[in-house]
Amino acid sequence: LKENTMLSDKIFSIANMADQAVLYVLILLSIVSVGTILERFFALRRISTDSKAMRSRIKMALQTHSLDDVEALARNPESIEGRALMIAMKHIKQNGANGLEEVFNSFALTEKPELEKSLNFLATVGSNSPYIGLLGTVLGIMKAFHDLATTPDAGQQTVMAGISSALVATALGLLVAIPAVVFYNYYQRQVKGVLVNLDSVKELCLAYAKQKGK
Question: Which of 4, 15, 35, 198 could cross-link to 139 by cystine, CB 3.0-4.6 Å?
Answer without folding.
Answer: 15
